[in-house]
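Session log. Operator J.P. requested a structure for one protein chain; no other inputs attached. Running the standard single-chain path with token output.
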Amino acid sequence: MTQEPIKTRAQRSNADWGAIETLYKTTAISVRQIAKDHGVSGPAIAKRAARDKWVRTAVCGAQQIPAATEEVQTGFNREVGSQDACKAEPAGNQVQTGKRGRKSSYTPELGTHICLEIAGGKSLRKVCSMEGMPDMSTVLRWLADDEKEFFHKQYARACEARGVSLAEEAMEIVDQPVKTPLELAHNKAKADQRKWYASKLSPKRFGDKLAVGGADDLPPVQVQERELTEAERAVRVLNALKSTPDLIASLVSGVQG
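Structure written below.
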């Protein structure tokens, strides 16, 4: 295995420190790789960064890291060399780190985006787990804010539309071919769960109970009773007698007897 020749102090002094500084500040390239590409040592870069107070802005795509803490944050060690900034962290942790600094300020555009995702069938929890979305607690705080009335109405309509999406999804699940009784039971459970939740999100369309009343969102029809006139009472009595001839015959026989 061929080793690279060791650079002398004179050769290191001729290194392009301007390019090294740019790469250090604006990219996520490891210190070891920068040192290798420019013929200098990792400790030399770390020393220059600490002296000139370089700040890394692209390490793991997350936070600005001062040069003084570079050795801790990136896993750099002067004795054994340097490591890639993100190599020590599992992939799952990198995703979690990228979620820092989520949006917390409400805008009409962001509210509309959230509601469109919900109307398409996603849950609020799933929408909030998407990149660029606020935390679920932030959205719930918006819904509790009386000043965001427009967002409240948007969210209510989106939930009702989600009920339609879930009902259609339930029908698609039912239509799927199955090979075993276990698959049939599993699909039935999924479809029933979606139909049940659709009835809660959109009760006017999929609810089991029918509202008795006038138009939508109006109170039930009120019926007021009034006292009958003498003529109306007489008409009702005659109609009752005509409908029951046996009663008339018994009354006549009683009078004659």
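Operator note: Residues 9-98 form one domain.
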